[in-house]
Amino acid sequence: MLGPVGVLDVTVLGAGDAFASRGRFQSGYVIEGGGAVVLLEAGPSVLTALKRSAIAPADIDYVLISHLHGDHFAGLPFLMLEYLYESPRRRMLTIAGPRKLEQRTRVMFKSMYPRMDTSPLARKLRYVVLEPGREARLGPMRVTSVRTPHTKPDVSLALRVTLAGKSVAFSGDTGWTDELITLSAGADLFLCECTYYKSEHLDFHLNYPHLVKNRSRFSAKRVVLTHLGREVLDHAPEIEMEMATDLMKISL
């Protein structure tokens, strides 16, 4: 059974793109409510942003990763380092995402800290594969995943998290797909990437004109643009949709 309807608090840890445009932190969001703390994405700056937001890393129950690009999951080794030395895990941490997440995370950690013994932490970690087109039940939340046209052959996902009777949809990184309309339908919040302003030839990311063209098709209660690139930030006065900022707090 899912928990009763309640308040979800969403913290934007990082609203920037892979290039940390205009000094913004890279991808990361925390969803708190219904007795769970969920980290959505773990870019390289995630540990810094967590501590600036006064969110204790040890309080995280679940980590959701949309795809295996460094600006979305390269913060996991630093989170694990935190758990090994500063904030030992007292309970299981579930890390869920596309296929190969566990393998790639292990390789990345070993490359960064080759002689470190991770066995004390390994017993507290559980990896779950999120399959496109399926719904996963993780503790008190449901996670719906759809594949997005961003990476091949690797899988990139857009996600919808339902917790405490509220829903947060997240585009991940993606070119345009009508799947975003369905995934975000009726959501309390839709975090939607907007990397470019007019680079329409780059079809593996979303651009502002395409989002404006389809804005009326989104039925989410609140749409917030994120993963903001240099082009978008350079045209900020012309952007008529809400844009995320680092450490922004949203209550649903």
List key phrases describing it.
alpha/beta, globular, 6-stranded mixed sheet, 13 strands, Metallo-beta-lactamase, Chain A, 7-stranded mixed sheet, 252 residues, single chain
Write a brief structural summary.
This protein is 22% helix and 26% strand.
Poorly predicted spans: none
Number of domains: 1
Given the structure, what is the number of helices? Answer: 8
- CATH names the topology as Metallo-beta-lactamase, Chain A
Percentage of residues in DSSP E strands: 25-35%
Major β-sheet, in short? Answer: 7 strands, mixed
Can you walk through the features of this model?
The protein has 252 residues and is an alpha/beta fold. It has a single domain (9-251), classed as Metallo-beta-lactamase, Chain A (4-Layer Sandwich), CATH 3.60.15. It contains eight helices and 13 strands. The chain has helices spanning 46-52, 70-73, 76-85, 101-112, 119-122, 179-184, 208-214, 230-234, and strands at residues 9-14, 28-33, 36-40, 62-64, 93-97, 125-129, 135-138, 141-147, 157-163, 166-170, 189-193, 223-226, 249-251. The strands form two sheets. A seven-stranded mixed β-sheet has the order 6-5-4-3-2-1-13. A hairpin with a 2-residue loop joins strand 7 (135-138) and strand 8. The model has no long low-confidence stretch (mean pLDDT 95).
